[in-house]
Design brief:
The chain has about 140 residues and is mainly beta. It has two helices and ten strands. A hairpin with a 3-residue loop joins strand 3 and strand 4. It is globular and about 40 Å long. Keywords: Signal.
Amino acid sequence: MISRFTILFISFLLSFSVSADETWAIDCNSGLGRIVFKENKADLVVNLNQIVISANIVQSGNSISFYLDEPIELGRGGMMLDWDSFSKNEKIAVVTINGNKASLSWNGFFETNKSQYIWVSESEFYSQGSRKNVAIFRCEI
């Protein structure tokens, strides 16, 4: 017989899973701050019509860490950035999932030659004010 604790624990684990081809966004209707999960990667719309990137993801518990892989689509603003100087080993963002909503903390792109994050407040994932995180939601497609 399965104990109540086992059922609760399994439900807890399932609430933190993200499936391939799943879309999350700050605003699902407009596509603002959109993330499309794939197998071990995700495509992030950092700035609509300017910067779309591919990121490697590492899931640990209820958190998913994002690491820059490569730019996918760049507008004029994105083309001005020196993509070769950005680290692929430093986290650009971390998402903490809770059911159909999540909290995203955007770090920015880590510029290795200056040892600092850039494109922090310019991103759609940047939270105005004193909050560090923005809310994102699972989108029904």
